[in-house]
Amino acid sequence: MEEQDFEGMNILSRRLCFVLPVGSLGLLVLSAGIPVAQTAQTAAKLAGQASFRRQCAVCHGEKGEGTKRYQSPLIGSRTEPELAGYIAAKMPPGPASAHCSAGDAKSIALFIYDAFYSPVAQARNRAPSIALSRLTVKQYRNAVSDLLSSFRSPVAVGPDRGLQSEYYKVGRPDGGQRALTRVDPQVHFNYATAVPIAQDPDPYQFSMVWRGSVYAPETGDYDFIVKTEHAAQFYINDDQKPLIDALVKSGDRTEYRGSLYLVAGHYYPLRLEFYKGVTGVDNLEKVKKKPPLPASISLEWKRPKQAEEVVPERCLAPITVQASYVASTPFPPDDRSIGYERGTSVSKAWQEAAVTSALDTSEFVKTHLRDLSGVADDAKDRTTRLHDFCVQFVTRAFRRPLDADLQARYVDRQFLPDQDPGVSVKRVVLLALSSPRFLYLDSGAANPDSFATASRLSFALWDSAPDAELMRAATQGELSTREQVGKQADRMLSDVRAWAKLRDFFMLWLRVDQYPDLAKDAKQYPEFDPVVATDLRTSLELELREIALGDHSDYRDLFLSDRLFLNGKLAKIYGGGGDQPSDGVFREVKMKPGERYGVLTHPYLMSSLAYLKASSPIHRGVLIYRNMLGRILQPPPAAFAPLAADLHPDLTTRERVEMQTKPAFCHGCHSMVNPIGYTLERYDAIGRLRDTDNGKPVDTSGEYRKVSGETVHFGGVGDLAKYIADSPEAHSAFVEKLFQNLVKQPIRAYGDRQLPELQSYFEQNQCSIRKLVLEIATRTSIKR
Question: In this structure, are strands 702-705 and 711-714 parallel, antiparallel, or unpaired?
């Protein structure tokens, strides 16, 4: 390859930004020289500015940026009255006689709040910008997988679930007599010594085949397990090489495993073959003199960092899709420090992973070239047709048509005379997937063309490249109006890839994405095991999907719904199951009034935000304060270790927390967090309801001080749930966090009116999550 072919890779070593004007916020700016009317408030601000410079700047800096004496910047989320109260009680450090007067503290708080402390001031002073972003790891894997899949015939997966099954009377499927065809919800059968086929049964030999596809809910390594006493073969995403080959039995082994890396939001083809039989007539006659052997077959899996379970019906489809390429090269994790995954920084490790993955993909394309290109190895015009294939490949990789210069650079020059055209294709694929035109998102231009619009829309909704229909619309000029873009967005939201992205958002928003290995004290909670933890996670995912994309799609149901998805095992622990058997499948159950309030009190969330033996009001309060109410908390000054319950056997969890967080250096943050977490004390360490804690009645009273300074009092979780459901503060926080996760950019970089306008749209549309997703994707895809 020529050196200029990789000229764009130099971008990988630096971060570029497209800066958008934010507009005036109409607030007092230090040293801005802006004349203002001499109102009482302005006079107070000016007095506060003078007092700050005289008493505070020596420690905090002229603009609150910090100094060697006190390095942390003066930023936070306290309200202005809270800030004034803190200054009066604590500043300057030393004896109480040296602290600011109440009047001085109020004017200083007024000044610093508007100048650099408040979130609005922070946004103004940071000059938010839209950063040039590379693909995140998820986006990269999705884009590569979908790019290669675009060269195979698409197969639509309908609403039907389960697997297509065929039962044969004798022998192997290729030579046996097919007796029955049907759809099985899952593969989990125990026939004992009987047979699954009513017609002309032979309990000594029969076979079965299941075909269809399996959906991967999340990205990672999946362990597939086949359990049977007889012979079996299991194929997934490859119809030639079995992942599990138990065709030849040895010993008493009944369990077989194979591991495969899968990407979330995609279906993968599978086939499972089962054989019960013997070979040879004499052998069969000898066998039939004895009772028939028992026969069972089960297809199970272990999702990433979860317990084993039978592959559920909801993840199976009776349609066989085309095989997908999976880019499984390990990448360093993306930055998530500000609440969403970003691709705004590039390390040497990331560059090496990108090149390695491009090499692996190019080798795969070369190996499967006939399948992907449709060009036979002995075709007379093979070189010409492979050249055309490469033009299509690079066009789809770059997400826009190629001009003459790009085609010459990325395709024409790679087809050298007397060179195997397969090698030329490999060079093209490697060059295209290493190019910034593939690796970077087109997110900065204020007036995007149709292809940039298509790309923005697809990555906002799918974290992947545009599909054929979206590219067709871009080519035909059908993405030039808001209505046209909205129509495409509505179509795309019904795709399973859209839910895969939304699921990741909700799991991050609820802070349960990092709790896969959920465990509790076995003596205190003997019923809570890895299977229950996995079932609870499934229950939460089902509830989130129903609320987010169901008929109502109402954000308020996240806090007010009185329903849970329970299977038989969970119903025995958490109630509400009625007469459901212990092995009953998941179904939506209406709980008793006052027992549950949406995902806010979901047992998986309550279990995740708790300790091995006890609940944790602090963890629960922090989640609500930060993620649901959008407030900022400074990191704790030291590592926090909870007081052991055994050391204070007479205290409730609430009493222990109050004791430990009473010191002054703790009280500042915990006075805001703890009272919220206390409202959830009716739920123990596994999220089960309780009325007493350590023999004492549970105290669920709490409070919250709003941004306005007003204090809201809660009698329990019901009051808290209603407040979050209807609170403009919570609405604003949800809108901003959803925006960030969809677009991978800060919302204020799109203008200071973006957040209030989207919040207003959200509230005017009955807090519809679905409509909000579509509005965000549409807005950020077209002209800004």
Answer: antiparallel
